[in-house]
Amino acid sequence: MFTSHLNPVFLKLGSIEIRYYGLIWLLSFFISLGLLNFLAKRRKIEIDKKEIFDLVSYVLLGGILGARLFYILVYNFGFYLVHPWEALAIWHGGLSIHGGLLGGLLSGLIYCRRRKIDFFALADVFVIPLALCLCLGRIGNFINGELYGRISSLPWAVKFPGVEGFRHPSQLYESLKNLIIFAVLWNLNKKRLKKGMLFFLFIILYSLFRFLVEFFRQPDPQLGFLLGNLTMGQLLSIPFFLIGIGGLVWVIYNDSADLSSN
User: Fold this and answer.
1) Three-state secondary structure along the chain?
2) Number of structural domains found in the chain
3) pTM of the predicted model over 0.85
4) Which domain holds residue 117?
5) Residue 51: inside a domain, yes or no?
6) Is residue 204 included in any domain, yes or no?
7) Among 106, 118, 108, 115, which residue's Cα sits nearest to residue 40?
8) C-alpha–C-alpha distance, residues 237 and 56, integer Å
9) Beta partners for 2?
């Protein structure tokens, strides 16, 4: 077993703190730019570096707004109804990955429509760096000692500061599952597939693995267990999984869909 003494603060300048979590997401931003530029060229998508920068910025902003709004409405509406000013305090935590995916998706759709770019062609390459960035982000959660798992007696259980008992390092489980998704998509990207297949496969794999990892993750304290002892994360993953399956079937049997080229 392991007792975590990790300091989430990388550097402190007076009252200003620079945290590893923020640095990880800054690194993820630049990784996304580099990978998207490489993958777009490989698939011959007509988009330049400036457009890629704009796209990632739009999707990131939309993802943050979607993640926050979704968390407020679905996870803790009562609290924010009483403390509305806290809705802007995202540094206090409170983001939903499912809401982030929806917000990022909507931003990406709007951007592609305005720039007249094929959405599915771009989405197929966007989900690859996205999976890698989510992998890195969960490592940030581990360093922060947040989103930890349920009590465990396994040899790799972790004692987080201020948390009762040793816990499953569910943040690392999620990091690993995102890394697996990245590896799968990266390898499939080298094959000739119909446009949209990688995008919907990402949704399927993410929702499936998230559903499984939730069995080891501590439920949100304000919600606890819900229908049939499932968590909110599991309940939200079910419609995402069904949408992914439906979209993948639609792409496979849509004769008008083009094959992606390397």
Assistant:
1) CEECCCCCEEEEECCEEEEHHHHHHHHHHHHHHHHHHHHHHHCCCCCCHHHHHHHHHHHHHHHHHHHHHHHHHHHCHHHHHHCHHHHHCHHHCCCCHHHHHHHHHHHHHHHHHHHCCCHHHHHHHHHHHHHHHHHHHHHHHHHHCCCCECECCCCCCEECCCCCCCECCHHHHHHHHHHHHHHHHHHHCCCCCECCHHHHHHHHHHHHHHHHHCCCECCCCCCCCCHHHCCHHHHHHHHHHHHHHHHHHHHHHCCCCCECCC
2) 1
3) yes
4) 2-193
5) yes
6) no
7) 118
8) 24
9) 158
Among residues 4, 1, 2, the alpha carbon closest in space to that of 142 is found at 4
Q: Is residue 89 part of a domain?
A: yes
Q: Could you give the maximum distance between any two Cα atoms of the chain, in Å?
A: 61
User: Is residue 135 a contact partner of residue 158, using CB atoms and an 8 Å limit?
Assistant: no
Tokens 């609290």, residue? 79
Q: What pLDDT digit, counting tens, does each position of 160-183 carry?
A: 999 999 999 999 999 999 999 999
Q: How many Cβ atoms from other residues are within 10 Å of residue 117's Cβ? A: 17
Residue 247 domain-assigned (yes or no): no
Q: How far is CA 27 from CA 16, 202, 218, 223, in A?
A: 20, 22, 28, 33
Q: pLDDT tens-digit profile of 95-146?
A: 899 999 999 999 999 999 998 889 999 999 999 999 999 999 999 999 999 9
Q: What are phi and psi of 189, to 5 degrees?
A: -60, -25
Residue in this structure with the two tokens 């500061």, named with its chain if needed: 161
Pairing of strands 9-13, 16-19: antiparallel
Q: With 0-12 CB in 10 A as exposed, 13-18 as middle and 19+ as buried, what is 147?
A: middle
- The distance from CA 246 to its chain's CA centroid, rounded to whole angstroms, is 21
Q: What Å distances lie between residue 240 and 202, 207, 208, 235, CA to CA?
A: 10, 6, 9, 9
Q: Which two tokens stand for residue 48?
A: 């330049």
